[in-house]
Amino acid sequence: MRKALTILTVLALVLGTTTATVGQISYSGIVTVDSANAKPSESVSVKVWLRDNNIDVSAMTIPLKFSSSDLTLDSVSLEGTVWGAGFAGYFVVDNDARFVRITILPGDLVYPLPSASFVEGVVAELFFSVGADVSPQHVTIDSVYADSSLGGDVHIYTRIDVSDNSGTQVFLPGFRPGGIQILSPTGIDDDAGGLSLPADYALEQNYPNPFNPSTLINYSLPTAGFVRLDVFNILGQYVATLETGHREAGVYRVEFDGTNLPSGIYFYRLQHDGGSATRKMMLVK
User: Fold this and answer.
1) 216, 255 in Cβ contact below 8 A?
2) Phi, psi (rounded to 5 degrees) for 65
3) Is it true that 2-181 and 197-283 share their CATH fold?
4) Which of 5, 32, 145, 193 has an alpha carbon 20 to 30 Å from 212's alpha carbon atom?
5) How far apart are the C-alpha atoms of 255 and 276, rounded to whole Å?
6) What pLDDT score does 240 carry?
7) What average pLDDT does this structure show over 159-183?
8) Residue 228 and residue 98: Cα distance in Å, rounded?
9) 174-185: average pLDDT
10) Which helix (H) or strand (E) holds 13?
11) Cβ-proximal residues to 109 (8 Å cutoff; 6+ apart), any chain
12) CA-CA distance, 86 to 114, in Å (whole number)?
């Protein structure tokens, strides 16, 4: 515990005051938060990414806020992220203030500092639970920026930042918010053994729309059968196949990632045993 506090204290002085040199190289990184759907009483997770990163990262701070008290942040995890064994995570969660601060630091103060080298990767995962009796709504997960002066030239910042392995340079990534769409609850048919199946074929409007860089597409099948879900550009040219094959009756959710595509209008078409359906979506970068 004393070791962790020492690391926090030293790097807080490096990362949290104006004595750090900010952005002496051109930094291109951007932090993005995924979007997800959930119903009342469900648990849901969203991933936080660092994309277009062009430095070796030795420390990172990510303060976030969510816009509704109908969500409870249960935990934060670094499992499956870019951080290896040489890093430790420290999390401050305040559900009353709807706030979380994620800090990733080297496990040992050695020089040069341990660093993670990557262009794109998950840096944290947030696990939420949705209240039991809540109305449909979109809960935004956004960044926090605050500048607290301690007098003179000394400042403590609450902001998203990353540090290189020199421990003296701080870089400020861009940010793209995400969120959780709380959906209307679905009724349960007790005579069907606790399962509620769709009454008809349906292809839902993607969410979010417009989107950047990814969006979610839901579709429903009242009976089992073959499905194919394709994406086309505005010229009708094939872009991607998101689903193909036999699916059981039920509701399905598919993610479409437009990271490598230009901005514009796209169409997604679901083919199934009952016919086909097409909807329009917009990628804005």
Assistant:
1) yes
2) -135, 150
3) yes
4) 145
5) 19
6) 94
7) 88
8) 40
9) 86
10) helix 2-15
11) 6, 7, 10
12) 6
Query: DSSP readout, 128-173?
Result: EEE-SS---EEEEEEE--EEEEEETTEEEEES-EEE-TTSSEEE--
In the chain, where are the structural domains located?
2-181, 197-283
At 237-265, the pLDDT tens digits run 999 999 988 888 888 889 999 999 999 99
Helix/strand/coil percent split, the chain, to 5? 5, 55, 40
Rounded to the nearest 10°, the torsion over CA 74, 218, 197, 139 is 30
To which residue do tokens 């794109």 refer?
120
If you search the block for the tokens 């329009």, which residue do you land on? 280
Could you read off the pLDDT of 1-36 as tens digits, one per residue? Answer: 444 444 444 444 444 433 334 445 689 999 999 888
| pLDDT on residue 6 | 43
pLDDT bracket for residue 89 (50, 70, 90): very high
Q: Tokens at residue 139, please?
A: 């809960």
2-181 CATH, one of 3.40.1180.10, 3.40.30.110, 2.60.40.680, 3.40.50.300? 2.60.40.680
**pTM summary value:** 0.60
Closest CA to 129 of 170, 93, 161: 93
**Quick count: other Cβ atoms within 10 Å of Cβ 163?**
26
Which pair of structure tokens corresponds to residue 277? 């359906």
Q: Please state, in angstroms and rounded to a whole number, the distance separating the CA atoms of residues 262 and 260.
A: 7
Token reading at 154: 């000394």
Mean residue pLDDT across the chain: 84
* Secondary structure of residue 126 in the 3-state scheme: strand
| The two structure tokens encoding residue 250 | 């039920």
Q: What is the pLDDT of residue 280?
A: 95
How far from 279 is each of 25, 206, 216, 228, 240, CA to CA, in Å?
43, 8, 13, 14, 15
CATH number of 197-283: 2.60.40.2550
